Amino acid sequence: MEPATIGTLISGIKGTIDITIAALRARDEAKANEMANAINDQLAKLYGALFDAQQNALASQERIQTLVNEASALKSELDEFMRKRIELEKYELTPVSEGPVLYRLKVSNASEKPAHYRCPSCVDAGKPGYLQPATKGLRMYLICPDCRFEYAAGFLPPPDYSKLIERMA
Ligand SMILES: [Zn+2]
């Protein structure tokens, strides 16, 4: 097989990975699974082509190594995206008190980590976006350390004056 054909296979895989990532961002599970299967088929063809190329005495060893590295890098990119996707399945989009919709750790995963929220725009951009609580006066906020966005999370409960009233009585 000619190196140009191997390059075409790699371009095809890269294109399919882009479609897969777009489908995952659009939460189109059926399309993402279809594309993941297509990637596996394309990788099998690529490995076959690379094997054929290695058998060809005229093929340049350096070129083959570059192509193997490219295939490996694409596989790593896909593995990393899949890892993030599996991690994100532990969360559900949920509105907090004043309206913003955030990723919240599902109750079924609460034994793994303490309850927390993640910033949807940073998560969609592939960043962690673990929101940190903060207060300004009586208002509570959740601040994203990645994009610095402040999500209004409502009001603190009023202070408990019952002990003071008991002492005054
Ligand atoms: Zn953010």
From TrEMBL:
Superkingdom field: Eukaryota
Name under which the protein is recorded: Uncharacterized protein
Organism: Mycena chlorophos
